[in-house]
Amino acid sequence: MTNAFTYAFLLALGGSLLLRLWLARRHTRHILRHRQQLPAGFADSIPLEAHQRAADYTVAKTRLGMLNAVADTLLILALTLGGGLQGLWQLSANLAGSDLLRGLILIGAVSLVSGAVSLPFSLARTFGVEARFGFNSTTPKLFFLDLIKSTTLGIMIGAPLLLLVLWLMSIMGSLWWLWVWLLWSGFSVLLVAVYPTLIAPLFNKFQPLQDATLSQRIDALLQRCGFKSQGIFVMDGSTRSSHGNAYFTGFGASKRIVFFDTLLKRLEHDEIEAVLAHELGHFHKRHVIKRIGLTFALSLGFLFILGRLIDASWFYQGLGLTSQSNALALVLFFMVIPAFTFPLTPLSSLLSRRHEYEADDFAAAQVSAEALASALVKLYRDNASTLTPDPLHSAFYDSHPPATLRIAHLKGEHA
Ligand SMILES: [Zn+2]
Fold first, then answer.
1. SS3 of residue 260 by DSSP
2. Is residue 111 part of a domain?
3. Does the annotation mark 236 as catalytic?
4. Domain with 392 in it
């Protein structure tokens, strides 16, 4: 029962996959071409051996990502035109009497299938690539414990929320999408607010920073920047991986800055202070709030579109369905929409990179550009992040500017 929409969908899905694979291939080729030589300005701080290891690591990750993209596309095809969703929908009729419960079972089944497809890739990433390059410290036991925990959490939070959404869809008439948006937005705010204190501690241990001299320096910086929070926390990132990082999370009273223990171990005090100032820059410039606002606006737009599509039989038929229901519409829409929006990825990456530059500028003004630059070089080296990404790949995906540009920016050069 193909129609014009079937062809538009196939074109978007195929086009997105080809674009993904083409960018990945450019990326690996570019990296391998620059494997023998560090970019200018890095030769003193990073040994050639480390540069080559970063190249091999990035190439291995990118190749696994290519396979993953192919598998994801095949899964979407199997579920839509392949009849998978239609089959699951019919199966759910035998398990549930009410439409609400049937919808919940359908969405649960789809999540289970897509989880099963992504699991081998997640295993290959952790115990293949990450282990091969010496980053992995997750044991198989911890891996599966995490999986069980996150699945349980997903069901506990997701099932009631979905039931509410399906219920609103069934009783709110033609403006249901507005109500669902309000529910979704309220829920997202709640999640961001409780994530640092209630959810993250289920997976990691967070401890206040112990080092007294460092704490003093940090407190002075926090006061200077007018940042009131429950302080700085150190996370036991080393239990899963030797990658180091720092991040800013939550808002209001729950906001906090988190350092991975792996990062603290490797940086000098002035470098830690500079990294912290960068994170404070994100806070000062209200990047989290801006991101949330943007997400709200986009989700309102998408739900409005879904509100138009939900009664259109061509939408279901074009994607291989003979039945129509609210739950099917939700699943179809959110499964298919990324194929159409994938080409817009560079816009979001661009915004994110702009925020990174702003946070860097803030850190340079508050602490020191040199300290941040030397911290970044260490981070790139120890995380085996490539210094020579394909420029187009980087412009398309990267949330952070490439090292060469970022450090040039800190040094006031315009590369
Ligand atoms: Zn940042």
1. strand
2. no
3. no
4. 204-282+348-411
- Tell whether 36 is covered by a domain: no
* 320 falls within a domain: no
Cα distance between residue 289 and residue 147, in whole Å? 30
Q: Determine the pLDDT at residue 40.
A: 86
Kindly name the residue from 56, 72, 279, 390 that is annotated as catalytic: 279
- C-alpha to C-alpha distance for 60 and 312, rounded to whole angstroms: 44
Residue set of the binding site for Zn(2+): 278, 282, 356
Residue 326 forms part of a structural domain: no
Question: What is d(CA 78, CA 301) in angstroms, rounded to the nearest whole number?
Answer: 27
pLDDT at 219: 86
Give the chain's domain count: 1
Query: By the 8 A CB rule, do 334 and 306 touch?
Result: no
Cα 246 to middle of ligand 1, angstroms: 8
Given a cut of 70, whether residue 170 has pLDDT beyond it is yes
Does the annotation mark 130 as catalytic? no
What percent of the chain lies above the pLDDT cut of 70? 99
Instruction: Spell out the SS3 assignment of 312-371.
Output: CHHHHHHCCCCCCCHHHHHHHHHHHHHHHHHHHHHHHHHHHHHHHHHHHHHHHHHCCHHH
Which percentage of the chain shows pLDDT scores above 90?
79
- Could you list the residues known to form a binding site, using ranges: 278, 282, 356
Distances (CA, A) of 249 to 152, 194, 209, 382: 23, 10, 16, 23
Structure-token pair, residue 297: 């606006």
Question: Whole-model pTM?
Answer: 0.90
